[in-house]
Amino acid sequence: MNPKAMDSADMLLMGLEFSHKPGVDLIRNCDLPPPQKIFTGMARVKDRERDEAESGGVEEKLELLKALRLSQTRAREAERKAAKLMEERDCISRAFEDEARLIFFYRQSVKLLQLRLSNLQKMHDEEESRRNGDSDAPAAGGGGGGEAMKWVWALAICFTVVGVGFLYGYTCNVDEDPILNQR
Known about the structure:
By secondary structure, the chain is an all-alpha fold. It has helices at 8-13, 15-18, 23-26, 45-54, 58-132, 136-176, 178-181. The chain has one domain.
């Protein structure tokens, strides 16, 4: 076969055929000794009996069991560490989300306070102009003041609903988080 004529999918499917290493070398565990038997098809009964008679060493079996136990212990420790790291990652991501919600809530509160301040400033300026005796100022701004006040109240109600929603979401996430509940 011409390897240049084959595409990458064929190369992946036939990777073992073109591999320079035998299959046994590809399947190795650093803790366990190499396998004594390799399945190559249906073995004869005589071969099986002979192999069992040859591999009857107790010390070899004990070493194999010890290596297997060590490998399993390392695998369990790695699983525990991975689970612990995933819990820490989830806790950190929840903390970032909670902080982002709080920052958003504070920004919206500041915007609402700025809007209220500008509205109060306008009302104060209109009242000052009325006291000074300007008769043109109330006539020009009299019709728009009520409309602006409606918009201010509508925005205030919307921001309040959004803030309550974020506060509710924050408290629900804090109740579910076991690390934050320990504090």
